[in-house]
Design goal:
The protein is mainly α and about 210 residues long. It has one domain: Ribosomal Protein S7, CATH 1.10.455. It is about 50% helix and about 10% strand. It contains seven helices and six strands; from the N terminus they run αββαββααββααα. The protein has helices at about 1-10, 60-70, 90-110, 110-125, 145-165, 170-185, 190-205; strands spanning about 15, 20, 75, 80, 125-135, 135-145. A two-stranded antiparallel ribbon has the order 1-2. The protein is globular, with a radius of gyration of 18 Å. The N and C termini lie far apart (about 55 Å). About 35% of the residues are buried.
Length: about 210
């Protein structure tokens, strides 16, 4: 009886008490294990898995998006755009994500969690280029991107794009909503994350 009660409670858990995780599926087979859709009301684990190998697998995908929002200017090993105006406060990020999801629901009439998952799947590159030295020559070679890194790159590019749109020109929640909707539609004309994915894969194709 206890197991049944627990299962029922889990099904009733909704993100921010509004959006259900039920029925949301990851369609990309390679990302099924790496996009966590475990129901959460507040997606915050307080660094519980920070020192655990592959601990990011245990974080809800919304929490991973929130963590990227803490340093939206970060790209690669440096800050591509300064993030010094960002406070890194969970409450502030919480309000931005909640407002973003409200905008997405209003515009698309769909579950914003599903839009987020589709956006990550579409923006996740499958190949990229590495450089290594052979003698005195730098050689570039195409490699398959690991699933965990695919999700990280997708989230990073989505947040980078939104932040660049918002700085000095608009609202972060609106910019993020527009980027997620465009990425979920795989629209490279409106989504920087999709354009960046196509650029990376095209570069990798030329390095094969």
């Amino acid at each position: 009886m206890k197991k049944k009660k627990s299962l029922i409670n889990q099904q009733n858990v909704k993100l921010f008490n509004r959006w259900s995780f039920e029925g949301v599926e990851v369609k990309d087979p390679g990302l099924v294990r790496y996009i966590n859709l475990e129901p959460r009301v507040i997606p915050k684990t307080y660094g519980r898995f920070a020192n655990t190998r592959f601990g990011k697998m245990n974080l809800n995908i919304v929490e991973r998006l929130m963590n990227k929002m803490m340093v939206p200017g970060h790209k690669g090993k440096k800050h591509f755009i300064t993030s010094d105006r960002c406070t890194g406060k969970t409450e502030k990020i919480y309000e931005i994500i909640k407002k973003t999801f409200e905008m997405i629901e209003k515009r698309t009439k769909k579950n914003p969690i599903e839009i987020l998952v589709r956006a990550v799947e579409n923006a996740a590159p499958r190949e990229e280029v590495i450089s290594y030295q052979v003698g005195g020559v730098i050689v570039r070679s195409a490699v398959t991107t690991s699933p965990q890194r695919r999700v990280d790159i997708a989230l990073r590019n989505i947040v980078n794009s939104s932040y660049r749109r918002a700085v000095g020109a608009g609202e972060m929640a609106l910019a993020l909503a527009e980027e997620l909707i465009a990425a979920s539609n795989n629209d490279s004309t409106k989504s920087y994350a999709i354009r960046e994915k196509e650029r990376i894969e095209k570069e990798a194709e030329g390095a094969r």
